[in-house]
Amino acid sequence: MPYCSECDNEFQNWVQVCPDCGAALVDKLPKPPPLKPKPKAKADKDSLMHIATAPNEPLARMWAGILENEGIYSLVKSIDLSVAWYLPSLLSHYEIHVLSSQAEKASKILAPLLKDV
Hints:
Layout: E1 3-4, E2 25-26, E3 48-54, H1 57-69, E4 74-79, E5 93-99, H2 103-114
Antiparallel strand pairs: 1-2, 3-5, 4-5
């Protein structure tokens, strides 16, 4: 089967020129260069760190808003531990994550609020 050397499409034997790009067809495609392995991500000082757990979403969003007002961006992650779709999700909770470089400051800001939970 002939192949297009430009766009790597395969054609039937009677086709002489690629109808897509107009390049001449070849019997075999050259081997692609070996793939370079992706460099591993380095664990840097600004990885996400869990700092608090809220029992419900409104409370978690409120805490995230308090942190944002202080210049700390956070990620609210839903953790659903329900065992079946038809059972109420009484075991759900919401985790607050911040950059590790801001974790100490965020923990101090939320500490008075965590006492009531």
